[in-house]
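Q: How would the structure tokens look for this protein?
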Amino acid sequence: MVQVPAMKRVKGRAPLSVVVAIIGGLALATPAAKEAFDPRRCSTTEGYWAYNWTKRLPYTDQTCPFVDRQISCQRNGRPDSDYLYWDWHLDGCTLPRFDPAAVLEKLRGKRMLFVGDSLQMGQWLSFVCLVNSALHYSARTMERTTTLSVFTATEYNATIEFYWAPFLVEANSDRNIRLGAGGRVLHVDAVELHAKHWEGADILVFDSYVWWMSGSRIKAVWGAFGDDGYEELDAWVAFRLGLKTWANWVDANIDPNATRVFFMSISTTHMRSEDWGRDGGIRCYNETWPITRRGYWGSGADRRMMEVMSDVVGRMRVPVTLLNVTQLTEHRADAHVSVYTETGGELLTAAQRADPRAHADCIHWCLPGVPDTWNQILYAHL
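A: Here is the predicted structure in token form.
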């Protein structure tokens, strides 16, 4: 793995224009000119992470008051910060920077709703923090509940909301997350209890993956939860059934002339350091550098689940934009919360941090961090 010399960010100096790209283990200059982003022609999966030591962070977990403690890595004591200064560059075209003022104008008088799990919540919080950087503190409000949270940009009469539905379809663990994987039962053919909260949105952004991967089998029922018995299905079979239920609702209830619909692809986990050649490593713990191997694909993203996602979305009547962030996420073993997080509502203790094999979280992402890039891609498609 190539090591780039330490680079200091000096206050008061004009920012340097040099960006170093790490491509296949080589440090190269970034190409000077590319065509403008066109979602019909530009692939967001073909690219590379480049270290940009001149980068100005639009927010931090100290300046944005909405970042949950679970993902506030710097505030929680993470000692390194290089993971904050990597940009995703596309091979064929230029990915536009997230412009919070332009986003707020696009959202004027509109309702934007993120729907999904805690990873989607992290993306929502990233989006909120990015637009919040262009707002006066008196020009926004935030209301948080366990099910629906609403950020309002009052001057724009715009809301950016998050709705908790980790499977999209109904489950007995939607409210009782402590039930655990063994006690979860999914209602794979029912979505209405959740979906009634999605009606009327101008922009819908969905995700669902990681909760489906808590075991190779999933308990499913048809009919009421109170009925006796359940059927155990292979996870990918249950995922297809659940996703088709969601897709049927979208096709039956969404007017594509009034509502844009997006679906986020798999957010990769990094549970096996052997995947990227770090023998003796402990998952993502102490990783401070992206995986540089071009086209790297580890065990944290299931290809069959990705194929199910693409197939279901591709057959829908309502146009749904599948935002493929999986490949770019694969490389970022360095950007998870690791031991700089909380569990059960409490920050990890010193003893817990000293035991990363038991406590390192290699699912969730630090903010600022990788979810900002997902939102950069989402912005490019808006």
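The CA atoms of residues 44 and 90 lie 6 Å apart.

The radius of gyration is 21 Å.

Upvote if useful.
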